[in-house]
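Work package 3, deliverable 3.1, input record:
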Amino acid sequence: MLVDSLLRLREYRVPQCEIVELRLFIYSSSSPSPSVTRDVEEKRYLTLRTPFTLGGRGVFLFPKLIVAILATSPALLQPKVIIELIGNSLEMAGKQQNWVLMVTAQSPTNIAVIKYWGKRDETLILPINDSISVTLDPEHLCTTTTVAVSPSFDKDRMWLNGKEISLSGGRYQNCLREIRGRASSIEDEEKGIRIQKQDWEKLHLHIASYNNFPTAAGLASSAAGFACLVFALAKLMNVKEDQGKLSAIARQGSGSACRSLYGGFVKWVMGNDVNGSDSTAIQLASETHWDDLVIIIAVVSSRQKETSSTSGMRESVETSALLHHRSKEVVPKRILQMEEAIRTRDFPSFARLACVDSNQFHAVCLDTSPPIFYMNDTSHRIINYMEKWNRFEGTPQVAYTFDAGPNAVLIARNREVASLLLQRLLFFFPPLPDTDMDSYVLGDKTILKDAGVKSMKDVEALPSPPELKDNVPSQRHAGDVSYFICTRPGRGPVLLADESQALLHPKTGLPKKWTSKRIGNPIG
Amino acid sequence: MLVDSLLRLREYRVPQCEIVELRLFIYSSSSPSPSVTRDVEEKRYLTLRTPFTLGGRGVFLFPKLIVAILATSPALLQPKVIIELIGNSLEMAGKQQNWVLMVTAQSPTNIAVIKYWGKRDETLILPINDSISVTLDPEHLCTTTTVAVSPSFDKDRMWLNGKEISLSGGRYQNCLREIRGRASSIEDEEKGIRIQKQDWEKLHLHIASYNNFPTAAGLASSAAGFACLVFALAKLMNVKEDQGKLSAIARQGSGSACRSLYGGFVKWVMGNDVNGSDSTAIQLASETHWDDLVIIIAVVSSRQKETSSTSGMRESVETSALLHHRSKEVVPKRILQMEEAIRTRDFPSFARLACVDSNQFHAVCLDTSPPIFYMNDTSHRIINYMEKWNRFEGTPQVAYTFDAGPNAVLIARNREVASLLLQRLLFFFPPLPDTDMDSYVLGDKTILKDAGVKSMKDVEALPSPPELKDNVPSQRHAGDVSYFICTRPGRGPVLLADESQALLHPKTGLPKKWTSKRIGNPIG
């Protein structure tokens, strides 16, 4: 064990460029523990104390880093070996103390069309049923994450949307631990950086993440976030595992994050293993398989404080009398039907399944004690309008689905329908007076163009949809929707090679003064 | 068959006091059909045409009444028999043509605490599970119904809240048929009225019904209405069946009506018979058994058009993947637990069961395709406030339950809690400016007095409830509740002996010009 430790030390990089001291204490196991702090304060030069005692305890002290070694085979602990090690370390410290290595990635959000609700294991985040999602085009909704490593970092730190947040939560720790445990050696000859597999355990990380859409607005920001974090870290640390294994790591950050590791249509297989190794995402079809679909998200105004999905699903598992029946009896059949609907691009089946499953998920929330309400009156109105339109047309034109919030995700069967859908949405939910259309319909603006709506005047001129003809003049609900985002199914995570897109400064490893413009925010 | 018809005719009363004509046509089956209209126009006196043809067709014409007899055994059709019959009829017409016999009853509404949702037989109205309800005090919420019979009525007619409505619907027809089939003879010596059992099939009814609360506002108006109709008709027609059998008849008008035939705590047993004979209500405990309870109803403002409960539950049965599990696996256990909670006056269990079952019923509505939303944002807010308060107190103070609409029915464990509850409700949902408190809190005004609220100024001065202390200043939602009704568990249907409370005029049998004042409307 001592040998191991020494060998590891050989590869160790001194983690501060200002290092002027390096000390080796070898204490006898019978001697009192060293007062390291006092030693550091008192001495400003390299010290090597010998002889070391048989069966003693060694402490290598670097500024801000202590490596303790328990000598089990002290015969191997020769002074010259130690001295050589220290010399090597100092040399490397002089050379490389200054570098920052980083990787930037972009990951999509996803929207479940067969819902995940309920865990069988809270820590490993193992679900009680399979789920299926559509990945949303990262051009319109995505997380960008830069991960950096440097010997100059003295702890793991993270900034979300420019604000530092704590990494102490179990979910972050799980992801960092799992990725570090699978890290491989890397060598960047150009920069003169060499990191051995075992070094990753010691090196600290800086992470900066940015969502180009409102965080915690019910738009799966944590899914995109953890997928992006795991994907970027895996690239940085040269993790050799395939995307499926990465999805199982992202899953431990946020369950639905595992589905954001693929583009197109993705299934999260619940798995059977107690350790969760087979609870991974698989791609059912890529985004090009069914590229007619257009997705419009209605971001619904809400004053209500919402229950987090984590605590919500825990309470459902504990109290709902219907959830177990859903996960055991209902969802397995729907999964098969949904896979078939996707495979055959059968929109009516796809829409029917997505709508009933969204509604059933919210039904289970209502069956929770205390009940959870994610949808509000505006959500209900949107559903009623869509149901009426679909019935009027005789066959579904639009699927709707709602996650743990009031926002509607509407999936139109094609572009023509999407433009009719947007007309309807703007008819029922016009912007408040003096709203710029350009900030009210975001994302793929060509849908707005197809809908023939350029200004508030065009919105006011929109006719009442024919499916309402026999009714009294329809109410319009200005202000009930904050904005719309037009998008489509999209690709999985990608690396951003252009270093100007990094969120961390390449020299300091600290966040750039970011603005939404810098990283090409399509929203707003 | 001819003999039967003649014997029935013997008992027939001539239904118009102005009768001056009575004609008997006996047509040969081979002769052309008589032109009755022309005959009536041409002749102004009694005609008896003989001889009658063997195997012929007879037509008795009274003004506004035609009785057709097919002679199957013509030997019995002797002229003298016919003449005697006609003579008798004319004599009776002279004596009794003028009377109106009527009965007025009052029936309570009820609120289910274990919900009825879903029929196994649409026509007989047989439920898929047992349900339990609390009968509400008819002093505050009730239907008053007057039923009248008179030979001068030429058809069954009904007025609801002063407006004539059609009785052609199957539900009314079922109740009328079932009650008529169980009618007994009556004799009112004073008025000189004698009605034989079999006469009821021929006599027509006038029915006037009035709810002292908004019809179809989700306050179980149809339950009170059909219970009252069946109860009043049974009294009028001297039906000898017990209350349980009557409940099975009321059930065929509106399922939950069967529970309004008893006061206090009532269980509707789903039964097993295909003909529904054992699907009846039983009283679990009278209203005096647990008289601490106070009930406050929040009538929630709603612009939404709601799905009727009839079509709603049909759609749930047809499309919900959760309803069957609820009715088979969940409700039977809850029924036993609720019976026990009522028996032992165990409020925490009562409240817990009532809340989760209300929520599960609405969950099943959401799991219906298309989904049904009965609760709105205001309903959700009320639930959230009650849940927070109950949690804060450590044990339930208030149970909530919602029927097929947004109105909240809140059951407080006792009067002290009710006054705290009303303070909270008025804090969160103050009336709009310039609302008279007296028209904002209806029913049992002593609760308002206990709460110490006399004016809008008192409402404005209400403190934020302590359970919200750690929150930002709470929002108040003026106008989101139309009004509150304070009430309590109450008695079953009763007869109103005082004829001034009848809704029909005792001479004409037509609706009185009613006002809410006349019948002592406690609301408004």
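Residues 423 and 451 of chain A are 6 Å apart (CA to CA).
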